[in-house]
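for ur thesis appendix - Ribonuclease-like. copy paste whatever u need, i formatted it the way the template wanted (i think)
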Amino acid sequence: MAPMPVWSMLLLLMVLLGPWPASTQRETRHQKFQRQHVNYPKTSPELEPRRYCNLMMQSRKMTTNACKPSNTFIHGSPEDVDAICTHGGTHSSENYYDSNVSFEVTSCRISGGSQRPPCSYRGRLSSQHVRVACVNGVPVHFKAAL
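the 3d part is after this line
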């Protein structure tokens, strides 16, 4: 049997190994929470809330196939938001925790009747405590601004 050329061995190795792990990894629930709800420092703080919501909902991939009806962005550091599940929050019920401090938040709601792109949002900026669901000591779901 003749020796296999180097390029053939590399091709065989790639087929046997399959896709690289980084390309097949899915977003964790905590990563999805961070992408959808944490924006610190606040992107384009000079934008009024409507324009901010339209920009952020699209850039954070919440308008790709359908318009997400509502979403809240928390303008606190990822570490401060994560701390709600431990020393920075108070247990509420089940796996829900309320933040001990207020955060600046932008609440976005779809305007108009259609939930099909292109999406249009209205926004409201406020300072509020937040309630999140925690799993393994990190937030995985935004429940409410309180």
